[in-house]
Design a protein that fits this description.
Elements (H helix, E strand, L loop, with lengths): L3 E2 L14 E11 L8 E12 L4 E5 L6 H8 L7 E6 L2 E2 L5 H11 E4 L13 H11 L6 H14 L16 H13 L5 E5 L7 H18 L2 E6 L2 H7 L2 E6 L2 E7 H6 L4 H8 L12 H12 L21 E3 L8 E3 L13 E3 L5
Helix pairs in contact: 3-5
The structure holds adenosine-5'-diphosphate and magnesium ion (MG).
Adenosine-5'-diphosphate (ADP) binds next to strand 3 and helix 1.
């Protein structure tokens, strides 16, 4: 068995520095009041990187820690430990105020709820103008007007909608405004936390296509958080799977979703309706796992008492050929005979 060193920071050969790199990110929330020692381990040692112009999907059941990850990266939440590098710069080490101003002009977040994110008292124009002004992107009156109209066109809205109020827009249109507001800042990275989950099924695809267009035409990197594996397959170059605050599997979306190696990923995949497959979905097992995700004592998949994940974190194993960048972290994983799968010895990132 050959061993390869795979640090979280290791770029894929031929690529440049990642747009965003998360190293060893952990977050614990104290619960039960001031003097309680209880805590929820929302994130544990998460390593994840976003290449330039790459969309990475972060998938997992509700409660697995996806939003906490995005909120830590957006600096809405303070991580317990870890590093967040934006374009190679460790943002947690920067002065707090500066970081928030400079940082937000490089990284923007789009939230799940397009209804809650726009103050109903203002016209659409206000939100976009404000975003331009805060980040120093406003020019002369004519230039600003042109920029507003360009932003509307980019997100597929008519310019006369600038005069509308949020309640006059549909959910899909509001989410487009939220995206335009993020784009006004000209960010390198967008974190989109379940951006379509509150929208009608019929308009979801339009938002996904818009995100794809922004990647292709503007080279924006995106973390697309979702519990919808079909949309991850449709949109994302790579998919990372989060289980109980840890990443357990990651790879090129098509390969990962066609050949899931972790039992949790297999379960998620089995729950996606697929006419070509029948009888693989086990609702009882899924309910058990949901419970395990909410309050994990140890890994719910661990059938082998000799190797409990709670005692020793499993190492990463490569799954299939290296170009799929597919790995899994599970004691139960056994590569198929003759396959390229092998343990990747993890190096501590300095
Ligand atoms: P997801 O977005 O995948 O549904 P979250 O990141 O929202 O998951 O939550 C992960 C875990 O962290 C959950 O157990 C949740 O209850 C807990 N959590 C999130 N935010 C807080 C908070 N502010 N205080 C305490 N616990 C929290
Ligand atoms: Mg969430």
């Amino acid at each position: 068995m050959s061993a390869t060193t795979l640090g979280a920071a290791t770029p894929v050969a031929g690529t440049t520095r990642p747009a965003l790199e998360i190293r060893g990110l952990s977050k614990t929330f104290p619960i039960g009041g001031l003097f309680s020692r209880k805590a929820v381990r929302a994130l544990h040692q998460v390593d994840l990187s976003l290449g330039r112009g790459e969309i990475v999907a972060l998938v997992g059941e509700s409660g697995s820690g996806k939003s906490t990850l995005a909120r830590c990266v957006a600096r809405l939440e303070k991580p317990s430990s870890g590093e967040i590098l934006l374009d190679g710069v460790d943002v947690l080490k920067r002065d707090r105020f500066q970081a928030s101003r400079a940082y937000r002009s490089q990284l923007q977040m789009v939230f799940q709820d397009p209804f809650g994110s726009l103050n109903p008292a203002h016209r659409i124009e206000h939100f976009l103008r404000r975003s331009l002004a805060i980040h120093g992107k406003a020019g002369s009156a004519a230039e600003t007007q042109q920029r507003l109209e360009e932003l509307m066109a980019t997100v597929g809205l008519q310019p006369d909608m600038l005069n509308s109020y949020p309640h006059e827009l549909s959910g899909g249109q509001r989410q487009r405004v939220a995206i335009a507001r993020a784009l006004a800042v000209e960010p390198q990275v967008i974190l989109a936390d379940e951006p379509t989950s509150m929208l009608d099924v019929s308009v979801r695809i339009g938002i996904l296509n818009l995100m794809r267009k922004l990647r292709d035409e503007q080279g924006i990197s995106m973390l697309y958080i979702t519990h919808d594996l079909a949309s991850a397959r449709y949109l994302a170059d790579r998919t990372a799977v989060m289980f109980a605050g840890e990443l357990v599997e990651e790879g090129e979306s098509l390969d990962l979703l066609a050949n899931p190696a972790h039992p949790y990923t297999q379960l998620l995949v089995s729950a996606v309706p697929d006419p070509a497959r029948s009888g693989s979905y086990d609702p009882v097992r899924r309910a058990e796992l949901r419970a395990a995700v909410m309050m994990p004592a140890s890994c719910a998949f661990d059938g082998d008492p000799e190797q409990p994940c709670s005692a020793e974190q499993p190492v990463r194993h490569r799954v299939g050929s290296p170009e799929n960048r597919h790995w899994v972290r599970c004691h139960l994983y056994r590569p198929a005979a003759g396959s390229a799968g092998h343990a990747l010895v993890e190096s501590k990132v300095s």
